């Protein structure tokens, strides 16, 4: 069992709601298709690579000025990673 599964899905959904960005916008910006993004959002797929998290983060930030570095850090931390040096 992956301990981060629900954490990433919750963080991802929260940022989508906060930003108003859709998975279709993320798909268009990143090239990550709906067949990959939807299971991430639902918690059916977990532990995305750092590159995938960064692509999603950049898309969120591109489409919404509401997304901050703190939000991006939260998305990374939801899978036990970090973008900042502690």
Oligomeric state as shown: single chain
In total, the number of domains comes to 1
Largest sheet: none
Strand and helix order: HHHHH
CA(first)-CA(last) distance: 28 Å
Q: Which CATH C-level class is it?
A: Mainly Alpha
Tally of helical runs: 5
Q: Could you name the CATH homologous superfamily?
A: lambda repressor-like DNA-binding domains
**What is the CA-atom radius of gyration, in angstroms?**
12 Å
CATH architecture descriptor text: Orthogonal Bundle
Question: What would you call the structural class?
Answer: mainly alpha
* Uncertain stretches of 5 or more adjacent residues: none
Into which percentage range does the β-strand content fall?
under 5%
Helix % is 55-70%
What is the fold-level CATH name, i.e. the topology?
434 Repressor (Amino-terminal Domain)
User: Which term fits the overall shape?
Assistant: globular
Structural commentary:
The protein has 86 residues and is mainly α. The protein has one domain: lambda repressor-like DNA-binding domains (434 Repressor (Amino-terminal Domain)), CATH 1.10.260. Helices cover 64% and strands 0% of the residues. The longest helix is centred in the first third of the chain and has 15 residues. It is globular and about 30 Å long. The termini are far apart.
Characterize this entry briefly.
This protein is mostly helical and 86 residues long. It is 64% helix and 0% strand. The protein has one domain (5-77): 434 Repressor (Amino-terminal Domain) (Orthogonal Bundle), CATH 1.10.260.40.
């Amino acid at each position: 069992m992956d301990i981060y599964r629900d954490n990433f899905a919750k963080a991802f959904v929260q940022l989508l709601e906060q930003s108003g960005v859709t998975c279709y916008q993320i798909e268009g910006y990143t090239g990550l298709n709906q067949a990959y993004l939807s299971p991430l959002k639902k918690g059916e797929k977990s532990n995305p690579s750092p590159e995938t998290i960064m692509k999603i983060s950049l898309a969120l930030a591109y489409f919404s000025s509401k997304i901050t570095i703190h939000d991006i850090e939260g998305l990374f931390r939801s899978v036990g990673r970090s973008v900042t040096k502690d």
